[in-house]
Amino acid sequence: MAEVVESSTTVFTAQCWELHNSPPFGSLVRVDSDPPVFGVVSDVATRSIEPGRRPIAYGIPEEQLREEQPQIFELLRTEFEAVIVGYEDSPYIRQFLPPHPPRIHSFVRPCSKDEVRTFTGQWDFLRMLLSAPRVPTDELIIAAVRSAFEAWDRDRNYLVRAGKELSRLLKNDYERLGSLVRRISQ
Amino acid sequence: MRRAKVIGVVTKGSLVEGVEMKLAPDQSVEDVKAGKFVVIEGEKNEFFSMITDIRLDATSSDILVHPPDGDGLMKDVLKGTSTYATVCLRPMLMLRKGGRSSTELRPVKSVPAHFSRVREAKEEDVGRVFGSEEMGPQYFQIGTPLDMETPVCLNLDRFIERSNGIFGKTGTGKTFLTRLVLSGLIRQGKAVTLVFDMHNEYGYSAMKESSEGARGFVKGLKQLFGNKVALFSLDPESTRARGVNPDHEVYISYDQVQVEDIAILQDELRLNPTAIESAHLLYAMYRRHWLRELLSKDGDEVKELAEQVGAHKESLAALHRKLKRFEHFPFMVHILREGDAIDRMMEYIDRGIHIVLEFGRQTSMLAYLLVANIIARRIHEKYVEKSEKYFATQRPEDEPRQLVLVLEEAHKFLNPVAAKQTAFGQIAREMRKYYVSLLVIDQRPSGIDEEVMSQIGTKIVALLNDERDIQAVLTGVSNSSGLRSVLASLDSKQQVLVLGHAVPMPVVVRTRDYDEKFYREVTRTQVAEDLEKEIEILYGERG
User: pTM for this structure?
Assistant: First the structure.
């Protein structure tokens, strides 16, 4: 579905094989490299492949544009960035940084429901998200917890446990906790 | 075996102030009740403890300033982590882990380690601490701990070693409790009891007070234990009217009244100290006939008498006037026709028969104070004699039987002034040296002399509201601060705090029902005993 094009210890960037076909913001993805690495999608962007050339606005619907000028879509790429939140050290899931970053050109795919459940059964990934640099932290946490919540079949207990975990991580920042919990539960 | 529920972990503690526990997040704070019996599982010891206080806490004051509104999720998120309940525990006893018998129980000399688990007490814990009726006749089941079904037992052997008290404000079931305890004592048969039954509630059926308004009658001790209990009556007519013949009628002669007996009536008769002095002067001249002599005089004769003995005229006249009230008491006589009732009582006591002294319609405080004091004084004298004899001969057959005097409205006899004058005060102070102890029943323990209170071994306390009463009951109890809140939060019926000599640790108990089931249980062993005796008589003792 996507391929790693840039990689470091804490984040990687992957390019989607199809335009606009990125996993959703906040969802859990898996890089099939050695070791398999888990990341949470923290930024999605679609831009021109040539940095100097920006797309031009045509003023016609996308369908019509695709018929009239299909080539311009070939010049666009969708990429996403993911914060690394753990890796698989079979048979365990580790929620700390892998010894090696994912290799370039490794394939990236969204995690299955079971994988999400297994991974989000532990809570240390929340702390990793909270301390990730250059990301909209609160929004990312909201999106990540909400997507995990879906995988847990919208079990309310899961939200309560997540909230308790956050309240521990945020210590005395009651206001922030309140805002997070409110938006997660919406 | 049911696994006991862990209700929290120890977070703080001190030997002096007790231990604090953070309530487990899955536990509702409203299920935690003051007075409940819990066990702390330390590293090496188990600590048997009582819940004394419960507090709501929050990690941040912000939460309290802006409480989560309406949002159920936020409340659930905070519950148990950011907002939590702290429960104060008072460890009462410790037992080495794996220890089985109650003999290994020791007073608490340490605190459990951090994060020791606290669990609800299991049935076997109650048995380990309080014993059970199967362990011997000295154990008498008095009720069950809060929210539990296992019986808590009083150790009657220890109970009769000291004077004891049953306290509680009106309507909390003191009389029922007393009947319960007396049934236990009678069944065990180690001590003999003499009940001053002011309101005729112990001997033969008594009215049942019920919160549902359904009134009825319950069985008295005589009905339960038959010839193990003798009914003495000051008012035989009243006793007969209730459908039972007293075993003995009690009369008191004027010659049996001593000056000390009048002295404790000072308050009741509003006598001033000079009146008592006049009585002493009379006594100096007429010895034991002083009262008869005084009451036989009228009008001016009293003044002559005053001159004769050298007393103040007016005060002797006042004494005369007030003691004239004695003549209205049907039980006061000049000559004892049927012999001395107190000697009869002693005979019964020597035979191990328990006595209930009914006052019938003579329910005035004056009659009660007078009679109880005269009888107690005489019996005490006889017991001192017997004990001295036993100390001299040291023969086991001379050892007097332990006697328990059961006394209602005890503060009238044991208030700081009276306690120094009455036989009861003396009995309470000298404890069991002379084989007599008291079971005092009172609704105002603050009225009882502190010295007497501190000698009371076992206290069975129902609800008390007055701060002074609570204070008085907890006199001489170590670490009493936690028990205070427990006492004030008891239910008004069938809940008591038992503490002192006869129980290894203070415990809140839901008292046993005094009903058909109870009747069967206390009399069952007696039937068996009687049978055994008859078998012995028929076939001789079994080797």
Answer: 0.79
